[in-house]
Amino acid sequence: MHVIRELGPVHLMFLIPMVFVSMFALGLVLWRLALNMSARTNLSTFLPQLQDRLSREGVEGAVRFCKTQPGLIPQKLCVAGLETSRQGLAAMRRAMVNAVELEILPQLNFLLPLILAIAKIATMLGLLGTVISMIGTFSELTDMKSSTELGGKGKDIGLALFATAPGLLTAIPLVFSHVLFKAWNHNFELKMKSAAQKLLLLVQATKPAAGAAVATPAPSAVSAARR
After folding, report:
1. What pLDDT score was predicted for residue 206?
2. Is it the case that residue 213 has pLDDT exceeding 90?
């Protein structure tokens, strides 16, 4: 607080915008965190329910079930695969790959470039404030001759260096958050690949069962015809 009371107009000119930038960046981080939480799905619970719904109600019922579940994997990945399941497993793979690349990954990366950009800009703004303050301080030092006056300017040099601190205090948490979000996205991609592979196996296992169910009335029909 003692340092803040001694800040001059030049320091405040950089400190006040930096405070607003920090608050804006905090809002972005919380927003991205909320989006990540809403994108999650408990696959250990969802996949057995999907298998049961797929065996009882078919593809249409499974699609309706996926659309009501929370998370990007049921609503985007599974729906894209199930809607093309009648065209074969290859079509399902292509549909799910397109859903990941064109829909899911852009949503996961939303706000991340902006968070990283603010982290870099905050650092540069802090350095800019330090440079401008140092230029003004050294310009005043050239006009001074007595050692007493020169010694009094040491405090101004310290205040000039203080301008870098808000920039670093803003940038360091943002860079750390950006790295954590990237790691979370990578783990989520692995979950999507696992879920896509399991969905292919579920559809592949359901089709022969459905075919056998359709073929069972054939012997009775033949015996009836012979009678």
Report:
1. 82
2. no
Q: Specify the 3-state DSSP secondary structure of 3.
A: helix
List Cβ<8 Å contacts ≥24 apart for 46-55. 46/71, 46/73, 46/74, 47/195, 47/198, 47/202, 50/74, 50/78, 50/199, 50/202, 51/202, 54/202, 54/203, 54/206, 55/206, 55/209
Distance CA 206, CA 222 (A): 26
Cβ-proximal residues to 194 (8 Å cutoff; 6+ apart), any chain: 43
Q: For helices 154-162 and 164-215, what crossing angle results, to 10°? A: 10
What's the token pair of residue 32? 């991205």
Neighbouring CB atoms inside 10 A of 90's CB total 9
Alpha carbon distance, N-terminus to C-terminus of the chain: 102
Cβ neighbourhood burial of 18 (10 Å; 0-12, 13-18, 19+): buried
Identify the band that residue 87 occupies on the pLDDT scale cut at 50, 70 and 90.
Answer: very high
**How many C-beta atoms lie closer than 10 Å to residue 189's C-beta?**
14
